[in-house]
Design goal:
Elements lengths: L2 E10 L6 H11 L33 E5 L2 E10 L3 H9 L12 E7 L6 E4 L1
Antiparallel strand pairs: 1-3, 1-4, 2-3, 4-5
Length: 121
């Protein structure tokens, strides 16, 4: 069934991610070609993984881009199989926290909730 959820990300990515990971980011957030190598992570077993960063089920406009190592994205996704947690678990190692213990990288807001939930990594 699933729950529609709005996701917003704004964060700095680490440098030198490697070609395979960069191609995944390019696919999800820059409308690039589907990567030939899919990372071995539980997030990529989710039915909707290809919609993250790229899809909108509402009247709001989806936008995503990566520029000078910064990622900014706003998208909607129908969450099934705990996709959101798996997505943030996958992306966390690539976030540049600038040696801080925790940084806010965005939020997600389920259609069933009264307010968004901030995401700290």
């Amino acid at each position: 069934m699933g729950v529609y959820t709005e996701v917003f990300l704004r964060t700095k990515l680490k440098c030198n991610l490697g070609c395979d990971i960069e191609s995944v980011f390019n696919f999800l957030f820059n409308n690039g070609d589907k990567p030939t190598v899919i990372p071995n992570h539980v997030f990529f077993e989710c039915v909707n993984w290809q919609r993250f960063g790229r899809c909108s089920y509402s009247n709001f406009q989806t936008f995503s881009y990566i520029n000078d190592g910064y990622l900014c994205s706003r998208f909607d996704v129908k969450v099934v199989d705990q996709d959101i947690g798996k997505f943030f678990n996958w992306i966390e190692p690539y976030i540049d926290k600038n040696e801080q213990d925790s940084v806010c990288v965005g939020w997600f807001w389920s259609e069933k909730e009264q307010q968004p939930e901030l995401v700290f990594m």
